């Protein structure tokens, strides 16, 4: 297994920990629609790293800011998840188990939950402090991940999962006896899908559409690329169409804007809590920068949409989201510029 690059995630999310206390009193009304929460594999004392990780992960994945009057930011739960996994192998195993459960069939109708679960997976894989985390991605996890991929009910969450699986694949040799079950599963899936009919839309986006969109009439396909795209073009759903003048339906638009805001907040945290050397060499910063750039282009397209035009409330939401994205990108650009100009002996300081 290749060694992950240091990401300093304990510090990256530390500055948002102080918000958690203010938000803890607003638990009612800020969760997504009712569903059966998955069970942990063990019982843990209140206050233990395991109990804290389980609670924080559940709240991060299921908290919906749109459903609370107190504007709870799910990002306040991230420090607890990361630090608990760093301090306790058992907590790390429980988090992996619960993420896997969120990818399973019972949550296929919960797009935001699955997206956030994969986002946590991506963050923990990148975290140098949880180098053993991927060893917890066992057969049960692999089975649920395969279920999510094959159903393709949430294309945007599936794209993020495929990108994450591709990163995992690159971390392990092609031949070996110590390959995590989820990596072996993904390699088999790619081998079966040589034609690209199932996963080609994410692995080769310039040629193929998501399977869930192929069955719709042309006028209902907001993601159809008008021209062949560069192979380096982003694979996420925001990047698939920046030229359409159509506004997504309200539910889809709300989902996209929530994911854009989450990416912007995480980019700001990564930038503000990384040393110059970490900033210049951070895969996570690069990933969130690409997501925010792509999201900003799409949001600007939605602002100018004519089919239909956004109403006043929608326009206000679009403008606020675009402002948040631009602030995150501007702060990243300034930080990168300063990091490149910083003397070499200061790059390791923060």
TrEMBL record:
Domain of life per record: Eukaryota
Q: Which Gene3D superfamilies match?
A: 1.20.58.160, 1.25.40.90
Q: Which residues form a coiled coil?
A: none
**Pfam families referenced in this protein's UniProt entry, alphabetically:** GAT
Disordered: annotated segments: 15-34
Q: Name one GO molecular function term.
A: phosphatidylinositol binding
- Residue ranges under compositional bias (Polar residues)? 22-34
InterPro entries found in the cross-reference section: ENTH_VHS (IPR008942), GAT_dom (IPR004152), GAT_sf (IPR038425)
What are the residue boundaries of the GAT domain, all occurrences included?
Answer: 248-337
SUPFAM superfamilies the record matches: GAT-like domain
- The protein's name is GAT domain protein
């Amino acid at each position: 297994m290749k060694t992950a690059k240091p990401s300093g995630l304990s510090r990256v999310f530390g500055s948002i920990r102080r918000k958690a206390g203010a938000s803890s009193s607003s638990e009612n009304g800020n969760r997504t629609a009712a569903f059966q929460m998955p069970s942990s594999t063990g019982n843990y004392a209140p206050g233990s790293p395991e109990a804290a990780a389980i609670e924080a992960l559940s709240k991060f994945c299921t908290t919906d800011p749109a459903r609370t009057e107190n504007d709870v930011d799910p990002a306040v739960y991230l420090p607890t998840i990361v630090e608990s996994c760093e301090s306790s192998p058992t907590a790390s195993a429980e988090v992996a188990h619960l993420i896997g459960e969120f990818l399973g069939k019972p949550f296929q109708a919960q797009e935001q939950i699955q997206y956030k679960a994969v986002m946590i997976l991506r963050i923990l894989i990148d975290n140098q402090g949880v180098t053993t985390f991927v060893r917890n991605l066992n057969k049960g996890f692999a089975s649920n991940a395969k279920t999510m991929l094959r159903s393709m009910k949430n294309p945007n969450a599936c794209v993020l999962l495929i990108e994450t699986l591709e990163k995992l694949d690159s971390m392990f040799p092609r031949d070996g006896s110590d390959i995590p079950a989820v990596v072996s599963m993904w390699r088999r899936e790619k081998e079966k899908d040589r034609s690209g009919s199932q996963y080609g839309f994410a692995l080769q986006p310039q040629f193929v559409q998501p399977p869930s969109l192929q069955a719709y009439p042309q006028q209902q396909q907001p993601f159809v690329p008008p021209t062949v795209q560069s192979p380096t073009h982003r694979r996420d759903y925001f990047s698939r169409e920046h030229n359409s003048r159509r506004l997504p339906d309200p539910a889809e638009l709300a989902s996209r804007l929530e994911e854009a805001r989450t990416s912007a907040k995480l980019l700001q945290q990564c930038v503000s809590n990384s040393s110059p050397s970490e900033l210049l060499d951070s895969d996570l910063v690069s990933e969130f920068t690409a997501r925010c750039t792509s999201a900003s282009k799409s949001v600007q397209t939605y602002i100018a949409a004519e089919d239909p035009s956004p109403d006043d409330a929608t326009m206000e939401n679009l403008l606020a989201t675009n402002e948040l994205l631009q602030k995150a990108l501007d702060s990243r650009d300034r930080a990168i510029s300063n990091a490149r100009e910083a003397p070499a002996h200061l790059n390791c300081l923060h």
